[in-house]
Design goal:
The chain is α+β, with helices and mostly antiparallel strands. The chain has two domains: 6-88; 98-136, no CATH class. It has three helices and eight strands; from the N terminus they run βαβββββαββα. Strand 4 and strand 5 (67-74) form a beta hairpin. It is globular, with a radius of gyration of 16 Å.
Length: 136
């Protein structure tokens, strides 16, 4: 699984809580994401131009799922970084040069659509999949 989402597995919730706690211990600033929810359910983290939003919701998700768990990260360039399964600052920084499509690392990346991050080989293929009214 490449990202957290809706689940019935409590282990995903616990992993995301541990991820957030490790980030905060590593000096990420943590603030409420929404005024309507406590910081323990929805928060935003920031450090050195990187931003993350984390949802740690349990209960009230509906009849199908027990939890909504997500970690989303954007680099200083506003492009998406795939979060490592466990918190790892070095891996997050390496996300700036990792293609979100082929996962090639250590390469220049560019924007695809809203916040996608692609290498020079994947970018044209991914742009071709988008509706014609999308622009760079």
């Amino acid at each position: 699984m490449d990202e957290f989402g809706f689940t019935n597995d409590q282990a995903y919730l616990e992993a995301a809580i541990a991820w957030k706690d490790a980030a905060v211990a590593d000096e990420w600033e943590c603030t409420k994401l929404y005024n309507t929810e406590p910081i323990t359910r929805a928060c935003t983290l920031s450090r050195d131009g990187f931003n993350a939003s984390i949802l740690l919701r349990e209960g009230g998700i509906g009849p199908k799922y027990k939890y909504q768990v997500s970690i989303n990260i954007w680099g200083p360039d506003s492009l998406c970084i795939i979060p490592p399964r466990t918190y790892d600052w070095t891996a997050i920084q390496a996300g700036l040069t990792t293609c979100n499509y082929c996962r090639k690392t250590g390469v220049p990346t560019e924007r695809v659509a809203f916040a996608g991050r692609a290498c020079k080989e994947c970018a044209p293929k991914e742009w071709a999949k988008l509706p014609r009214n999308w622009s760079a």
